[in-house]
Amino acid sequence: MFGFYEKPNYPDVYMKIHEPNPNGSFFSSYLNQQSVIADPKTGARQSSMVLTNNEYSEVKTMMDVFHRGLSLSRSRKCLGSRYTTNEPYSWITYQEVDEKIQAFGSALVGIMNKYPESERFVGVYGRNSPQWFITQYACFCYSYTVVPLYATLGDPAMQHILKQTGLVILMCHSADLAIKILENFNSSLKVIIIAVQDQIFEDLKAQYSSSVNIYSFDEFSDLGRSDLKPKIPPAEDDLCLICYTSGSTGLAKGVMISHENLVDTICSTMESTEAKLYCRNSVHISYLPFAHVMEQVTSAAAVFCGAQIGFLTGAITGLLDDAEALKPTVLPAVPRVLSRIYERYQNALGNSFLKRYLYEYTLKRNLKILNSGKINRDDILDTLFFKKLRQALGGRVCMIVTGGAPISPELFNFFRAAFKGLIVAGYGSTEVSGVTSVTVLGESHEGTVGAITSRIEVKLADVVDMDIVALRDNRGEICIKGKRCTKGYFQDPESTAQIIDADGWLHTGDIGEWTSEGALKIVDRVKSMFKLAQGEYVAPEKIEVIYQTCQLIDQVFVDGKPEQNFPVAVVTPNFMMGKYSI
């Protein structure tokens, strides 16, 4: 057929960045068997992938992850940033980053030796930046634990974190963030480092330097540069992160993530995407918060391969401007970000009957080609409807990685069609260091969260309160066992006991089921599902995801009562869209 490959091949944009196997296919050979039974007694499953590659076996800690990237790309670009969208990105190499890590890490050793009674914790607060990256990798290389902070947890959670961890040192992106911490919270802080200097920095020093040691990032690094110390290699089971999650009840809980946890996830992510996610030529755009484990995993996978990482210039509203300048090859995105891009696309498409008809035809045609195991080249219709979108994201996106929340089939299929199948969706949580499953390349079935990733086992457990028997119903609570599972919550044994059972299985609180191909599907949260009067269980999140694809809806909440035979929804309309739709 004119314009299309006659047999499975690789997308053109992918071949410009990666070095594909000429005898292989872009699509996974595991599409029809995405997991296998590991234990017939419990129904536990594991990845069906046969792993013969031992090149990752020497990578044990996050220091090793960086050193691997350093060995692959020593003189190549590592971190890129800019102050305004009117200027080009400025880059530093892996070698230069390593030197900055040694300077900052040496300063940490010198400063922290003054506070021997404190934990080896370093707080980081603010938006993603080269300074955040250098701070946390200095911690990884000198055996300190990073405690990311973020304002959206709320003031009570912030106070709880500062008290529970006893932080004595904090790196803030800006002086105004440091002032908020010092003015509003009680803490043990002795040292504050400011990444970006401005006039407020001088105000901060004038007001607080009598009670707290305040340094600019460069000043602090200079302390270490004048007295360089050798790196202090961490052990595999040493803590590298304490990531606080808001949860559904009570105070924020600090998920303890060890080097082994995070490295296991990174290696498994590379294995489960068959090494098609990152390579030395990849460019990762870092804008999802480092305080969340998804960005920790994806950015570390980029480092693992010696790829480039470019940071957002300002607010998330400037994402497309930065993408145009950076030309990323990998776009990590939560469904909310993809939904905004989709809405913007639909608005620009307009209401012309002919244009809409041709768009729908092209969308369905592209999906049909992908579902048949082929990849379409650009033709007139594909160029007309999707090339401008691809160019808006830099024109070089080889993979969209989505996770953090469920993605609707409509949204997933749109990006599959527009980006020639170059999208994968993952499922996981902070407690499993980010990744449990990921859709295999070429997946066409709607609603799955993919194949079980390598190195773990997953089973469905009975849910007595809901009369769910896993082996009978092929449905149950998703439970995970493996090296990436957290050992628990920091200083919270009670909450830890609620998620890790006596046999070592980590209970996610999510209801899932298996497809005939062995892929995992999420039904809903155990605590979210409710029963109606007729005995039917309703999964509200699935309904909410569907309604949220409507441009006229801003937010939606679905609930129900057991004495009623129908659910109800509370909807916040998008009044601006409604105005233009009338």
Give the neighbour order of strands across the main sheet: 1-2-19-20-21-22-18-17-16-15-14
Sheet/helix structural class: alpha/beta
Mean pLDDT: 91
Report the span from N to C terminus.
43 Å
Described by strand count, sense and barrel closure, the largest sheet is: 11 strands, mixed
Strand content: 15-25%
Rg result: 24 Å
Shape: globular
Unreliable runs, pLDDT <50, ≥5 residues? 1-8
Number of strands: 26
Q: In DSSP terms, counting alpha (H) and pi (I) runs of 4 or more, how many helices? A: 19
How would you describe this protein?
- Helix 13 crosses helix 15.
- The protein has 582 residues and is of the alpha/beta class.
- It has a domain of 52 residues.
- The two termini are 43 Å apart.
- A hairpin with an 8-residue loop joins strand 25 and strand 26.
- The chain is globular and about 65 Å long.
- The chain contains 19 helices and 26 strands.
- The strands form six sheets. It has an eleven-stranded mixed β-sheet. A five-stranded parallel β-sheet has the order 6-5-7-8-9, with helices on both faces. A four-stranded mixed β-sheet has the order 4-3-13-12, sandwiched between helices.
- Helices cover 35% and strands 21% of the residues.
